[in-house]
Amino acid sequence: MTAQPETEPFRLDPDGADDRHTLNARLRAHGGAAPVALPGGLTGYAVTRHADLKDFLAHPDVAKDACHFAALAEGRIPEGWPLLTFATVPGMTTADGADHRRLRGLATKAFTPRRVEELRPRVAELTTSLLDGLAEAAATDADGYGTGVADLRRHFALPLPMGVLCGLMGIDAEHTDRLHTLSNRIVNTNTTPESAVAANREMVAILAQLAAIRAAAPGDDLISALITAREEDGSRLSEQELIGTMLLLIVAGHETTLNLITNAVRALCAHRDQLALLQAGKVGWEAAVEETMRWDAPVSFFPFRYPTRDLEVGGTLIPKGAPVLAGYTAAGRDETAHGPDAHVFDVTRDQSARHLSFGHGAHYCIGAPLARLEATTALRALFTRHPDLDLAIPEPELPAHPSFVGNSRQVLPVRLTPVGQ
């Protein structure tokens, strides 16, 4: 093992207002893994270099089950800890081995290539409807930014993945706004202990109610399929695992795509030359999605993995049981993987050095095909209908998403046509 010099943990801003990419460069320069200060005075580690992260995500001596989380086992994590849900929610993201394969297998059926392709018409239909709503919001000054301006995040980037996901799961539209609000509180890292506990309890209560509705009146949806699997063989899915799986699908299934679309629009508005290549058909819109995932990933530091023994990562010793964050935004700009121009947004970039922003190994994101479909459809339709769309507020003035887990902005006011038209 390589001995490490004493160093103070790097601070991750719970408000998400720090210069994320400058911090990431410092973390990469530190070594294969860097100590980071987590809420409550706890020290964890962030793995931020591409090669180290790829190896770590698939390492046989790295676990996801919180039984390996030393501080939790020792009683040092309070109930209202902002990141507790990421560690303890029952489901595929906190399971290992056979349990993980069992839980993942039940949910994967809804995200097969065939099932995702069947969703293409629905995604296109919803995209068109939401673009109509975006134009109406801009024309009526619905968001208070002035006539001709609307919050693209509120009217387009959010309801698209949320609408598709809720349709897939069998959740009525009346619940979507509240589920997003609660999901947002759960992923925020600046929330108070009281707010964190309340958000989790309300989310679980709503999901239990939705599960009961589907149990009484099953349909052709994912929740019904999960309930059927549980009832056919009770050992396949417990009640807690059912609710935990629903929670994970809602949070991960729309928050990440919401951030992806938001970040892609920001990037293209700031790089009009790259947008011109896409609009001229010289590059496919899929390339814009992949480059955004690399250059400004929707998830920055994802919790948690735990070494099951003292583990060396790129020359850094991580103690057994320490909570480790996957540094996706940092790995995306690692020059050793993506070249000396890794900091440059370039939709023509050779994508052979694949980004890790959907994960790697056994826990690779099952929703990646759907996220790609939604984002590609959204960007193509948005900039086809509104080719001159631009930010209505300068990028530095856009408030950050209050989290070091999620990576985006809270709002995205856009002007659909140039001033005077």
From TrEMBL:
CDD domains referenced in this protein's UniProt entry, alphabetically: CYP107-like
Keyword list (alphabetical) reads:
Heme, Iron, Metal-binding, Monooxygenase, Oxidoreductase
Q: Which GO terms describe its molecular function?
A: heme binding; iron ion binding; monooxygenase activity; oxidoreductase activity, acting on paired donors, with incorporation or reduction of molecular oxygen
The record ties this protein, via Pfam families, to: p450
Q: Does the record's keyword annotation contain Iron?
A: yes
Question: What protein family is recorded?
Answer: Belongs to the cytochrome P450 family.
Question: What is this protein's name?
Answer: Cytochrome P450
